[in-house]
Specification:
Aspartate Aminotransferase, domain 1, elongated, about 160 residues, about 45% helix, alpha+beta
Amino acid sequence: MPAHRPADLAHAICTGQVSLHWDSGDLVHRFGWRGTWDPAPALGVAAALAEHAAWVRSGETAGAAAVAEQIAEALGGLGLRPTAAPALVPPRLRGFLVPGVTLTDLRACLNEARVRAWSGSAADGGTLLRVATHVYNDTADVVPTIDAVRRALSRG
C-alpha cells in the first residue's frame, strides 16, 4: 500500500457537523468554524454516562435483558424465528421473522394491544418484528406483546 501524505487525504476528511467552511480545500480552514453548533448533546454526555452506570449498578439493565429474554422465549414458543444467531443477539433487543403473518395484520394487533415494537418487511417479503426493552420494562410487558403476536398468528 502506498504511503499517503496528509494533503492526499484532505479532500476525504469531513467535519462531524456542517460548518461555514465545510467545502474548503484547506483542512484547517474546514474545521476552523463549527457553524450553528448546539452544545447541549455534548454537555449532557457526562450525565448520560452517570445515569447508565447507575442503571447497571442497580441491576436495571440486567432486568431489562431478562425481560427481553422472556419475550424471546415466548415468541420462539409461538413459532417466530430469531433473525440473529445466539452469539450475536444484543442483551435487550430481539428480532424475529413472523411466519404466515402479513405486516398489516401484525401491526394491527400490536396497535390494538398498545404495544410499541418495530415491524417491517423482510427482503423476501416476509414479516419482521423487533422487540427492544429498557429499564422501564418489566415482566408485565411480556403478556400484551405475546397476546398481540398470538392474535396476529391466528389471523394468518
